[in-house]
From TrEMBL:
Highest rank taxon of the organism: Bacteria
SUBUNIT field: Part of the 50S ribosomal subunit; part of the 5S rRNA/L5/L18/L25 subcomplex. Contacts the 5S and 23S rRNAs.
Record keyword Cytoplasm present: no
Record-linked NCBIfam families: L18_bact
GO cellular component, one term: ribosome
Record's function text: This is one of the proteins that bind and probably mediate the attachment of the 5S RNA into the large ribosomal subunit, where it forms part of the central protuberance.
Originating organism: Caldovatus aquaticus
Similarity-based family: Belongs to the universal ribosomal protein uL18 family.
Keywords for the protein's UniProt record, in alphabetical order: Ribonucleoprotein, Ribosomal protein, RNA-binding, rRNA-binding
Annotated protein name in UniProt: Large ribosomal subunit protein uL18
InterPro entries associated with the record: Ribosomal_L18, Ribosomal_uL18_bac-type, Ribosomal_uL18_bac/plant/anim
Length: 121
């Protein structure tokens, strides 16, 4: 059962990445990884194979916020931080790579905060 679930997750991830690759037109990719407890976001330039900006809930000041159980609020802070760091690196337009995750909850909160922070996708 667990291997079937992982295989389906990998198929969803590959299917989404393929469509993003076709539609991206050379834009960097805002990639989201969500674990049971934390959320991570990176702006990746696939042409050069470099990470341009990154943020996660593992940063020291965000760990305190997670202890209170504010998962969506912490994801929103991560979205704003990755947007600030991307703008500092000179990136304003990205494509959103949600991975195998549905666009709701923490993933949606991160995306909305990144838009508010100045990224367009």
């Amino acid at each position: 059962m667990a291997t079937d679930k992982l295989a389906l997750e990998e198929r969803r991830r590959r299917r989404l990445r393929y469509s993003l690759k076709i539609k991206s037109h050379g834009r960097p990719r805002l990639s989201v990884f969500r674990s049971g407890r934390h959320i991570y976001a990176q702006v990746i330039d696939d042409a050069q194979g470099r990470t341009l900006a990154a943020a996660s809930t593992l940063e020291k000041d965000l760990r305190e916020q997670l202890r209170t159980g504010a998962d969506k609020a912490a994801a929103a802070v991560v979205g704003k931080r990755v947007a600030e760091r991307a703008l500092a690196a000179g990136v304003t337009k990205v494509v959103f790579d949600r991975g195998p995750y549905l666009y709701h909850g923490r993933v949606k909160a991160l995306a909305d905060a990144a838009r508010e922070g100045g990224l367009s996708f």
